Amino acid sequence: MPEDLNVELAxxxxxxxxxxxxxxxxEDTVEIFEAVVLAMVAIATAWSGYQAAKWxxxxxxxxxxxxxxxxxxxxxxxxxxxxxxxxVSTFNTWIQAKAQGNEELAALYVRRxxxxxxxxxxxxxxxxxxxxxxxxxxxxxxxxxHNPQLEEADRLNAEASAAFERGTHDREIAEQxxxxxxxxxxxxxxxxxxQRFKLRNVRIAVLVVAGLLVFAGFTxxxxxxxx
Length: 227
Fold this sequence. Notes:
The protein has 227 residues and is an all-alpha fold. It has helices at 2-99, 103-111, 115-125, 148-194, 200-223. It has one domain (31-223).
C-alpha cells in the first residue's frame, strides 16, 4: 500500500511539473510576443511622430507661401487699379481735348497711355466710336484691353489659393499620423494591461485586440503619404 501511494504521489508530482513547464512555456511565448509588439509599436510611434512633425512643417510652409502670394497679389492689384484709373482719367481728358479740336493736346494724352491700354485704344478707334453709336463706350470695354498688373494679381491669388489648399491637405495628413500615435499608445496600454491578468483566456483576448490595433496602425503607415 505505501508503494502504491508513492507511485501515485510521484505520478501527481510528474503531472504537476509537466503542467508547470507548459505554463512557463506559454508565459515565455506570450512575453516574447509582447516584447516584439512593444518594439514594433515603439518604432511605429517614433515614425508616426516624425511624419506628423514633417507634415506640420510642410503645412506651415504652404500657409506661409499662401500669405506671401496674397501680399504680392494685393500689391499687384493696387498697382493695376492705379494704372487703370490713370488710363481712364487720361482717356477722359483726351475726349475733352478732342471735343475742343485741340489735336496736339489730344496726341499728348495718347502718348501718356500705358502700352496695354494703347493697344485697346487703337482697337477702339477702329470701331469709329465718334460716329457709330453701337461702338463700345471706351477702350476698357474692348476685348483687346488687358491690365498686366491685375492679371498678375489674379494669377498670384490663384497660386495663393492652391498653396492654402495644399497646406490644408498637409494638415489633414499630419492629423492622420497623430491619430496613429494615439492608436499605438492604446496598444501600449493594452500590453501593459494584459500583463496584469493571470487568466490565460483574458490575457490572450487583450493581446488579440492589441494585435489587431497594431495591424490597423501599420496598415495606415503603409497607406498614408510620406515626406
